[in-house]
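Key idea: predict the complex, not the pieces.
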Amino acid sequence: MTGLTIWTYDWVPEGPRGFVRDLRLRWACEEAGLDYAIATVPFDGRETNHLDRQPFGQVPYLSDGSVEMFESGAGLLHIAGKSEALMPSDATGKAQTLQWTLAALNSIEMVTLPWWFLALSGDESSALSGWVAKRLYQLETVLAGREWLAADRFTVADLLMADVLRIPKVRSFGQRPASEAFVARLTDRPAFRKAHADQISQFEAADRTRAQATA
Amino acid sequence: MTGLTIWTYDWVPEGPRGFVRDLRLRWACEEAGLDYAIATVPFDGRETNHLDRQPFGQVPYLSDGSVEMFESGAGLLHIAGKSEALMPSDATGKAQTLQWTLAALNSIEMVTLPWWFLALSGDESSALSGWVAKRLYQLETVLAGREWLAADRFTVADLLMADVLRIPKVRSFGQRPASEAFVARLTDRPAFRKAHADQISQFEAADRTRAQATA
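Result:
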């Protein structure tokens, strides 16, 4: 594949549909108006069937000509480097965007995702709960004072933070009206809605293929 | 301050000395041969005394002329953008470096840090243990096959991954000889040793200042 290609699973169960992280990359390409293709790796055997491309057995990964890369955050920064729509080119705007992109991954998701995982495993009141509360309310204070995280405009940092915050269990954590308005505003963008609908459609089409294969 | 300045606490207790994340940024500057200054914010009152500079009340943050930014990962990428010593400038090398830098933060530290925090809170056998084991052994497989994570040479990705892996509780997790050799090799670099010694010295000097103030 010579153009920008986003790799994801060929199928996933209903639970994660709309949340598989290829959505972050689809959304970024839609915002930037970049052409991209979707390619797939089998969900069955995913733990080992693409370790040569993604050593943790996950998706997404990206190919772009001779460049191949995994980690959705890295893929986002790679795509953002192609478009002013995602990443301002001035030094201050770029630094702010980088800072909030990394904050989404390493200050918010680093706490919310393990907390969510523990809750899923039956531990609803882990010691992470207090940490989640603290970080989410600190972020609420930030979002109460501004429309966008960086550079007074939409950037890839908003896209990623909204994707981290829109996980239902995180979204419904406490009363955080500014954060809720932020998520609602971001996920109402046409580029998000297109990316989301495309991911759902892909997996629904795979349901039909799988049903035919076993018919 | 007009040059590159790394902000950290004016003092910390003995426990975190040698591990406060300003070390990541010091280390990067030392590797790149960049001039930098250290500036401090009081440890006492840290939860609220610098929220205008770091909305989560943490350190480090960075100033570089008119640019200000927090998140150690973002600061590393900012510094890496100044020096080929940290980040190759060719497209493939840059993508690999970005990918492994983000993997250190969002695939490894996102699991190991909450796991460490839970253990510190008395929960030694949280459901995160299995996730930690899986990720660390997947990484061990990668490190068994190569000396450097990206581009067949030292990059900021090695620096960050080594800093994530050198936390004692993580470092001693299971038998992972390639990971141990990686951490030993990276932390034996003169730039790490200088950065580490400088951080320790700063906090030891602060001990003396505090002792005089209360004498």
